[in-house]
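B., you asked whether I could sanity-check this one before it goes into the benchmark set. Here's the sequence:
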Amino acid sequence: MKFLVAYSGSVEAKAALRLAVEHASLFKAKVFVITSMEGGHSEKPADIARVNQALKEVRQQLDDAGLDHEVHETARGLTPGEDIVRFAKENAIGHIYVGIEKRSRTRKLLLGSTAQYIILKATCPVITIK
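And here's what the prediction gave me:
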């Protein structure tokens, strides 16, 4: 069994990771954690350094839990939602864990929602946590 956590470093993403770790321990599942950045000129060095530090902490948390895991930072020119759904399909993921934050209708309309995209497009169950 394989679990995927869409990880942004937010409070909600950390809650999704904790739940995935709990479930993976119960089901002896492998945990994949992915942080997706679109790449190109839009990525700032400070953002990349912040992501690398956050993923280092995630690796330590998964090591401490004694779980089989892989941690990935991707920049494949896709939106984070597209990248996570594609990664899940390419790696035969069984469940995706996503932290969701409350947004106004206007903010969803203007900015879109990575979680919404994953929920609608993923070919496996998506577990959301707030």
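One thing to flag: The radius of gyration is 14 Å. Otherwise nothing jumped out at me.
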